[in-house]
Structure formats: C-alpha cells, structure tokens
Amino acid sequence: MRSVYVRENSVDGLPQECGVVAVSPLLRELILGAVDSPKLYEPASRTGRIMDLILDEVRRLPVEPLHLPEPWAPRARQITTALREHPENSTTLEDWGPVVGASPRTLARLFLAETGMTFRHWQRQVRLLEGLMRLASGEPVTTVALEVGYENPSTFISMFRRSLGVTPGKYFSTDD
C-alpha cells in the first residue's frame, strides 16, 4: 500500500477528509514513478509535473468510503444489522422483502436514499470491511474469502483490487 502526502497549499479540489480512492492504472504508475523522486524539486521539473498529475488524477477519482452508512428506516436497518453480523449472507432484496414487510423496490429506494449506496454496493462494502479486519488479524485470504461470502478466493481478490487498487497481499505488504 502507498500513501500520498500533500502540502496544504495544494489541497484545492481534494476531499476535505481522509479517504480511499480506487486507484486508476494511470494513478498507480504516477505514484510508482514518484516513489523514487527527490523530496525537494522545482515545480516545473519532471517530478513537479508528476506530482501535479497525481493531484489531478486524485481530484477526478470518486472516494470509496470504507465506512458503512446506516439507514434509519427500521426495515432497511434490520437488513444491515443481519448483514453486519453475517456478511456471508447472500439474501437478495427479493428475499428480504417478505422478511421485513416491504417490496424489493421500496427496499432498493430506501438503501439508496438513506445510505447513498445501492444494496449490492452496501453488501460489497460490508464484506470488504469484514475481510480487511480478518486479513489484518492474519487470517489467510482463502479463509477470509469464503467466510465473507465469496465462492472462491479469486473473486474476493478481484473485488478487493477493484475497491482498493491492490490485491490483499500487496495491501498488507510491509514493503514500502
């Protein structure tokens, strides 16, 4: 995992809070190119232009929240509580409808209105967060993938890479 630190006078247009972006291939290469750059550089130098491009790319990428906003509606909250306790649960909105007394369409609207995410996105996020916690505690990727509801490790790794820009192995690598 790589972190980018930005001078205070360069933050215009960047998110106001710390966050994670899904790293584009361009941003990845720019960051890798910046790693070996000198700490002090002229703004018009090659390094300065790389740093400007990094900021431009970060500004255009959507922030991927690593928190799960909770809905207030009791029916939607009943679902999120169940999924937090059992992220491996693959119940669809069609199946949740009769359980919580709402149509799948109503539940879909509730999720989007109250969390800013679709149900599927919210479900992916709960699995990602649970997976991150388990991986951080040293559990193997295969075990984590299966226990958070993925049919196989490669599907989990693919979702992880799409969400965080790197594989679980790279994310938790001690190599800087």
What does this structure look like?
There is one protein chain. With 176 residues, the protein is an all-alpha fold. It has two domains: 8-64, no CATH class; 74-171, Homeodomain-like (Arc Repressor Mutant, subunit A, Orthogonal Bundle). The chain is built from nine helices and two strands; from the N terminus they run E-H-H-E-H-H-H-H-H-H-H. The longest helix is centred in the C-terminal third of the chain and has 18 residues, at 119-136. The termini are close together. The model has no long low-confidence stretch (mean pLDDT 88).
Helix and strand arrangement:
Layout: E1 20-21, H1 25-35, H2 46-60, E2 63-64, H3 74-85, H4 93-100, H5 104-115, H6 119-136, H7 141-147, H8 153-164, H9 168-171
Antiparallel strand pairs: 1-2
Helix pairs in contact: 1-2, 4-5, 7-8
Distance between the termini: 7 Å
What spatial form do the alpha-carbon principal axes imply?
A: elongated
**What's the number of helices?**
9
| Poorly predicted parts | none
Quote the average pLDDT: 88
Summarize the structure.
Helices cover about 55% and strands about 0% of the residues.
Q: Notable features of this structure?
A:
176 residues; 56% helix; Arc Repressor Mutant, subunit A; elongated
